[in-house]
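Can't paste images in this forum, so I'm doing it all in text. The chain is below; anyone willing to post the predicted structure tokens underneath?
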Amino acid sequence: MITFIRKIWKNGFFPILSVNIISKVIPFFQSLIVIRLLAKEDYGIWSYTSNLLQWALLFSGFGVASGVLQYVAENDNKDEQQKVVVWGLLWGILINICISIGLIIVALFVPLPIKGVKELLLSLSFFPIISIVYNVGQSYNRAILLNNLFSATSILYFISIFIFTILGANLLGLTGLVIARYVGLIVTVVYILYNHRNIKLINILFKGINIRYAKSFLKFSFICCLTYMTGQILYLIDVFLIGIIIKNPSIIATYKAATLIPFSINIVSLSIMMFVAPYIIKNRENTQFIKIYIKKYFWYLLLLNMTIGALLIIFHKQVIELVFGARYYDMATPFIILVIGAAIAGVFRIPSQNILGNMRKIKINFYIALFAGVVNIILDIYLIISFGINGAAISTLMIMVLTSILSTMYLNHYLKEN
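Text version of the structure:
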């Protein structure tokens, strides 16, 4: 065990783990403070607006950030690596400009079920254009194994957002939250561009890129986008449909609060998969190598996720009272259901789907996610109408179990056959 810890420390796992902890802990405490500062209805309005923005960001760059990670990690030529990141960024910005225009159209002309959402959505409509620079830059840092820079950039982003969010919510309410999003992101993007100022952007653009290579890159990126999009529906559809069916910002606030801790307990699972991704990509044809990685990490993931999940369920009343306060006692049942689902996903779904993606088996991830997405929508509509937010939580649990079974079964089958 000590040898294992020393090895992953040397190879840069703990900077990635620290980032994932910070990426969950800071937004978590940030949300708690915002919950305390805002009226429950205002928090519901903010949650629903953020949900709509996240729907738009599912299409961000049509997946070029994933393409940059894959194609840069596969290539050891520095010039070719920089060419991929520059062209990926260019395509991503063009696509996200279109996404921003789409958000403006929705905010201006589409009837939305929650009052006050239109104005917030319109003010956040330019967020995708700036965020693509952050996403592509971080993918490039991971691909060339600049784990310390990746960590520093992520920490800067989350701390900036945290500081400006608290100040903004306290001084200007919902308007302050919008300003905080932009300021925190812009500060981080400037830091990324400064650290990669050696990339000769103009020269690379004039050199052009091989058409066949570009098509392969865009196709891979787009399939990753579809896979990510269908997978993330699991986390977004609940709040979206609760808003449409129940149309009560206070209930939206309750369910959103119930998701905060469960959706944050997969820190270790996500950290491990981010850490091993470049190594699996480089050895994606070596199934024996991948089998060793799976065996090495599975029991650690099982022990950690089950322990955390059990503690949260046993002490759920104390956790809710301490963290959220008396206004959110009605979140107990969905909270417990979501904890169970998140613990299962952390052991099976997250590792399996990430490994399949790193091995370029992205189509199977897409098919699983698409099937699960359709089932999720059907279950959500029926269960929310029948059981309210408890139904939404049950639907999420069922989909987490389903996707865990399907992705793990396929990965095991593939590794046995090759």
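The chain has a mean pLDDT of 85. DSSP finds 19 helices and no strands in the chain.
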